[in-house]
Every structure is written in structure tokens, then in C-alpha cells.
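Could you show me just one protein sequence together with its fold in C-alpha cell form as a worked example?
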Amino acid sequence: GNGDKPEKPHFDSRSLIFELDPCNGNGKVCLVYKHAKPVVSPDTEIWFLDRALYWHFLTKTFTAYYRLLITHLGLPQWQYAFTSYGVSPQAKQWFNMYKPITINTALLSEEAESFVNKLDPNKVFKSKNKTPVIKKKTPSQAAGSQKSHTSMTFSKTSSPAGNSSRK
């Protein structure tokens, strides 16, 4: 019946169970000592206890669990990938955003080219060299701009004097 899966932990004196990660209320990752021996032994395993209180085997050692954690980038609910339920739609969105190859392993084997970056940096960062258009002023525009400049300087010089007399 069990195949290659180890015997599930028990909530009695046969197992010592320590919670490693509460998984934001979506289950618990537990360090389990089989046969109630709290020493580092071959009977130490890492299990995932889901909200329905079903046990799902993750790894034999803490080091292997830590590698899995890093491989899955610690994304929320990554432990459900090792259950019969699978990851939730929300977790799939996170996986598709940050680790598309991990969640789509079936697609990877079928379509190897779908994950190849086809971005051409020469096209994306192509600079657009526009020559600036220089407008030449006609003699009538140059004279008009001088008149407006002198009238502005006159108004600027007269206004501070008015302000100082009010104080």
C-alpha cells in the first residue's frame, strides 16, 4: 500500500512533531521524529500537514527541505505541489510569474522553445536620433521680441519699488 512512501506520523507517543512553518494558516510543515527519539537519526523526516489533517511527505532531511524551499523561492503554498490537491489558482499565478518553468514542467518537455527569450535588445533599445528642428527668426520677429523684452524689464523694475513703499 505505501510503496516507497514512509509511514505517516502519529499524534501520539510514537512520534515527536515540531512545527517548522505555519504556512500562513494553509497547513503546517513539521519536523517529525519517528519512535519518539529527539536525536538526529535516520527516522527524522519533514512532512506537510494540510488543513484537513492529512499528512504529505516532503523530504527525509531538513537540508533537502531547505533546498526545496529555496527552489520554490518560498512562494506561498508551494508545499501543495507535493499533495494530491495541487497548488491553488492563486499560487499558480505566483508560480507563473516567478517560476514559470517549475510549474509548467509538462510544457517544458513538449515545447522547449516556448521558454526561450526571444527578446532582441537591438530592437528594444534602438535609439531614435531625431535632428532638432532649428527655427530661423525673421527680422520682424527679432524686432518684436526685443520690444516685449524691454517692456518686461520695465515692469519688473517698477514693481519692486512699489512693494518696498508699501512696507
